Amino acid sequence: MFGRRIEFDAKSRNFPIRELITPRQALAPRSYTWRNPIRLDQVGGSCVGNAWAHEAAAKPVMVPGINEAIALKLYHRAQELDEYTDTPPAEGSSVLAGAKAAQEAGYLKTYRWAFGLEDLVLAVGYHGHRSGDELRDPSASIRTAHTDGRPTPKPDGVSLSTGTI
To answer: Is the per-residue pLDDT at 124 higher than 70?
Structure first.
């Protein structure tokens, strides 16, 4: 349908973002926007590749030259790395495989996982990227449940979905 295939790897529990959140940060969640100057146009079920390509293009460490071809390359590599026997040819891949593909391509050093809403809020606010690192460490790619209707992108890049979850 949209390409994201849900897969939870028990080993991911060994890499919680919570370890990087200081007690001071935990007391003061902040809202922060990590600017991203590009807007890619997802093709088919390539959302995993597009998510990690957008991540690579975002501030504060912007990888130059990110485009749809790179997003598709990440997507196809994620399909090769993922845990599904039917990808390809079936659409989709997992966020975990996408992270591995992005790391393999040199777009990030490590990746960690949020295991709850509080961790997610703190991770995005404080650790979406680390300013000053040559490569991102750690990185944030957010996946949520989506509806069965195809999103309709508006000119400002915001997509509206229809249908049921």
So the answer is: yes
Pair 63, 107: CB distance under 8 Å: yes
Q: Is 136 exposed, middle or buried (0-12, 13-18, 19+ CB in 10 A)?
A: buried
pLDDT in tens, 72-97: 999 999 999 988 888 777 888 888 89
Structure tokens at 149: 């209707």
- Residue showing tokens 């509080």: 118
* Spatial separation of the C-alpha atoms in residues 28 and 127, rounded to whole Å: 14
From the number of C-beta atoms within 10 Å of its C-beta (0-12, 13-18, 19+), residue 89 rates as exposed
Q: Long-range contacts: 112-120, Cβ < 8 Å, 24+?
A: 112/15, 112/16, 112/17, 112/19, 112/20, 112/138, 113/12, 113/13, 113/15, 113/16, 113/17, 114/16, 114/17, 114/18, 115/13, 115/16, 115/18, 118/26, 118/29, 119/16, 119/17, 119/18, 119/21
CA distance 79 to 90: 9
